[in-house]
Amino acid sequence: MPKFLRIGIHQSNVSGYTSKAWCVRRVGSAVFLKWGAVEVLGAGDGRKVYWTRLPQEKTIRCGTAQRAQDYAKAAIARRRNHRYEPLVGPIAMRRRSAGSSADLKQVLATILIVDIVRSTEKAAKLGDARWSQVMGHYYAAVRKELKSSRGKEVVTTGDGLLATFKAPAAGISCATAIQKAVRTLGLEIRVGLHAGEYKVSGGEVVGLAFHIGTRVAAKARAGEVLVSSAVRDLLVSKSEFSKSEISKSDIRFRDHGVHQLKGVPERWRLYRVEH
């Protein structure tokens, strides 16, 4: 049964960073579909995916095996066009112990979102095999810079990645380093950073801050690193940095104007990082 995963924000649920999975299976002249919200814990080979609730199911009676095959192929193609990634391994129901949702730990961090520009177009041009190789090199380069900057990978998003940093300067430096590293692969990325609080319980993270960070990244053009005013203000106010030290650093900002971020309350002033 081919399975597909897409990690992102549901516009109707701005309080959490949520994901969705689809399963497509053909048996004779019938196609069985299963889909729903999932929880993704960990990354890489150790990643675990769980249904957050009972998934929805639907059976399509196509009449003939050929029609069912065509339907299944089209359903799989739609998932790929909608930036779903193939998912290997099972999707299990999450068993929560009593009280596991209580006592969530609240954390303040700088959140980084990386996204490849025109990834679908590049994938179609290169083909599945070559694109898979490029993506392998891409994630290796990104994770190398994350390790150097002491960033914490939260989740991958098919062609992007979400990570957190304790200090805003580390997140910005990592973003610019990733840009340089992936250019050798012929890739252009957009990056957004936001600073805010989120809640964590085990491997699950929730919070409006992730949603805002994603919207900041969406405002960036190819090759741009955009930060919210929260990141800039936090950088200036950090006790470990004096204003004189910031002025001597490599971090420079250019005002990018005030923006309405889709699905986010209020308007936010954004800044472009200058190299």
Automatic annotation (TrEMBL):
SUPFAM superfamilies: Nucleotide cyclase. One of its GO terms (molecular function) is adenylate cyclase activity. It comes from the Bacteria. PROSITE patterns: GUANYLATE_CYCLASE_2. Residues 110-217 form the Guanylate cyclase domain. GO terms for biological process: cyclic nucleotide biosynthetic process; intracellular signal transduction. CDD domains: CHD. PANTHER family: ADENYLATE CYCLASE, TERMINAL-DIFFERENTIATION SPECIFIC (PTHR43081:SF1), ADENYLATE CYCLASE, TERMINAL-DIFFERENTIATION SPECIFIC-RELATED (PTHR43081). This is Adenylate/guanylate cyclase domain-containing protein. The lineage of its organism: Bacteria, Pseudomonadati, Pseudomonadota, Alphaproteobacteria, Hyphomicrobiales.
